[in-house]
Design goal:
Blueprint lengths: L10 H5 L11 E5 L3 H13 L2 E6 L4 H10 L2 E4 L7 H6 L3 E4 L8 H8 L3 E3 L1 H7 L13 E6 L4 H14 L4 E5 L5 H5 L7 E5 L2 H7 L12 E4 L7 H4 L2 H9 L8 E5 L3 H9 L7 E5 L8 E5 L2 E4 L11 E5 H6 L5 H16 L4 H9 L9 E6 L2 E5 L6 H10 L4 E4 L9 H7 L5 E4 L4 H11 L5 E3 L5 H15 L5 E4 L12 H18 L15
Parallel strand pairs: 1-2, 1-4, 2-3, 4-5, 6-8, 6-9, 7-8, 9-10, 10-11, 11-12, 16-20, 17-18, 17-20, 18-19
Antiparallel strand pairs: 12-13, 13-14, 15-16
Helix pairs in contact: 7-14, 7-15, 9-11, 16-17, 19-20
Length: 520
């Protein structure tokens, strides 16, 4: 745990480990007024704290509600520490996860006497607002990883619900953890998706009652968000926080040694088990696959001699869930659900009705022998690598904001197998250069339109002119979307709309010539 000038280790803060503790008058500065920031302010106001929210811009509805709930709002530039914040002299600063460690206000909080929290720490401290039938607070299950977090969170919640438990997916998935904690209906389990940003703030926690999840998993680790963390080592350390103080099961990816090392180095509750998963034959404390059957050899009394069947690859394929990285997510989710006693047959039943969210290896159309796949959620090279492994030989639509990550390794590993690459986004030159170095024989087509409305229409036309019968056109950008689109979802919707528009128009004569770069 972190100690230092910002530890805020006063007796009063140490005592704030319950909804029913005395929060009245506690001076708390809240940084940011997004959905997370508002949930923090609303919670603290309900507890009677003295709340000052600081933000550069405020959603009109949130700004209107703050005085209604009893919180104050300061709006202005946060490129330096506002005098109003200094005068407020907060006892606690709670930052929304978008604020990086090097942000001037966060740096000020780290150096000062106030405690620095994230929304997750506050949620853990007040987790006893609504109790389970046995008088205890809900179990927490933590999920992180460079890729697959949201799908695994949804899978885990579905499996727990099929097993008769009231489970709420929350956190980075979109529903603030504080909203789930305060839900008057209460839950048996909170399935908490955590970003590396949230985990970095969680690593700042001090005091007598650190977050202690029932089970936890880091699905995988690859370069991402380096501009936020400053280095891969810092990003890795933030992800590793997910395993700290786990009580029952640390679930890790046997195919990703970094996750195993995280478990080996974590401080956990005595008796906590390490449970592995991968796509191979499982050992006695693992989940894996035997002759096309997904099995559990971890939560089984006779695990040294037999395994419990969960589902089959054939069943998953019939539901569009057989891509290797999706199967890995299913095994991880099953491990988490099994740690809470969910029966194998309930896991099977949950998978029968499960559907992936849009923009996750979603087949948007099949026409004239060409399959069009939207994996716009592949916002980094690691995610795109999984998509390309599922669709080898695809016409690859790639590009966007690379977030400081070198795409060369991905192109070297997967790019040479692509039939062609259609490059979009403002950082096209880096991608084109990577192909020139690592996959020079792959035809490359650039989309140089600056207008969002034109990007996907052009990309789809170029891809259609290359793709033939039996081919797949795969949107797996390996990059963020904010250079040309509102979000990865917006990017995916525009891709699907362009595909449908082209199919409805028929082939016709294309106004876009499919001449690869470097050809005369």
């Amino acid at each position: 745990m972190t100690t230092g000038p910002h530890s805020g280790g006063s007796a009063r803060l140490d005592a704030l480990t319950s909804w029913h503790a005395d929060w009245k008058g506690l001076r708390v500065a809240v940084l940011g007024l997004s959905v997370t920031g508002f949930s923090v302010a609303d919670t603290l106001a309900e507890l009677g704290a003295d709340v000052l929210v600081l933000t550069e811009s405020a959603d009109e509805e949130y700004a209107r509600l703050l005085p209604v709930i009893g919180a104050r709002l300061w709006t202005g530039a946060l490129t330096s520490v506002p005098g109003e914040l200094v005068a407020f002299d907060p006892e606690v600063v709670i930052a929304s996860p978008g604020f990086p460690p090097h942000h001037p206000v966060v740096a000020w909080a780290l150096e000062g006497p106030a405690a620095l929290w994230g929304d997750v720490e506050l949620a853990w401290r007040v987790r006893d607002k609504v109790l389970r039938a046995d008088g205890s607070a809900a179990h927490w299950v933590l999920i992180t990883g460079t890729n697959g977090k949201t799908t695994t969170t949804q899978l885990t919640a579905s499996m727990l619900q099929a097993g008769g438990l009231r489970a709420a997916p929350c956190g980075n998935i979109g529903v603030p953890v504080l909203d789930a904690v305060r839900d008057p209906g209460g839950f048996d389990v909170l399935v908490v998706e955590l970003s590396s940003h949230q985990l970095w703030y969680l690593a700042q926690q001090v005091g007598p009652d650190p977050l202690s999840p029932h089970a936890s998993v880091c699905l995988n680790l690859a370069d991402d968000h380096l501009e936020w963390h400053g280095s891969f080592a810092a990003y890795r350390d933030a992800k590793a926080q997910v395993y700290e103080n786990t009580r029952i099961a640390c679930v890790y990816n046997k195919a990703d040694i970094a996750t195993r090392e995280m478990v080996e180095q974590a401080e956990v509750v005595e008796g906590c088990r390490a449970v592995g998963f991968d796509l191979g034959v499982p050992g006695p404390s693992d989940l894996g696959i035997v002759e096309g059957i997904l099995v559990d050899r971890a939560f089984h009394d006779d695990r040294h001699h037999s395994a419990l069947e969960l589902t089959t690859l054939a069943d998953l394929a019939a539901r569009g869930l057989a891509a290797p990285h999706v199967v890995a997510n299913i095994l991880a989710a099953a491990a988490l659900a099994r740690s809470l006693g969910v029966a194998p047959e309930d896991i099977h039943d949950a998978l029968q009705g499960f559907r992936l969210d849009p923009h996750r290896i979603e087949v948007v159309a099949v026409a004239e022998g060409v399959t069009w796949v939207d994996d716009s959620k592949a916002t980094n090279p690691h995610a795109a690598a999984s998509s390309l492994a599922a669709y080898p030989g695809a016409v690859w639509v790639v590009g966007g904001l690379l977030k400081g990550v070198d795409i060369g390794e991905l192109v070297a590993a997967r790019g040479a197998a692509a039939k062609a690459a259609v490059v979009i986004g403002v950082e096209r030159s880096e991608i084109v250069a990577a192909f020139a170095r690592h996959a020079p024989t792959v035809p490359i087509f650039e989309v140089d339109h600056a207008q969002t409305e034109d990007v996907m229409a052009t990309a789809v036309e170029l891809a259609a002119n290359v793709a033939g019968d039996g081919d797949t056109v795969l949107l797996a950008p390996a990059a963020a979307s904010f250079d040309q689109f509102a979000s990865y979802a917006d990017r995916g919707r525009r891709f699907a709309a362009a595909v449908r528009d082209r199919i409805e128009r028929g082939n016709g004569d294309s106004e876009h010539r499919s001449t690869p770069l470097g050809d005369d």
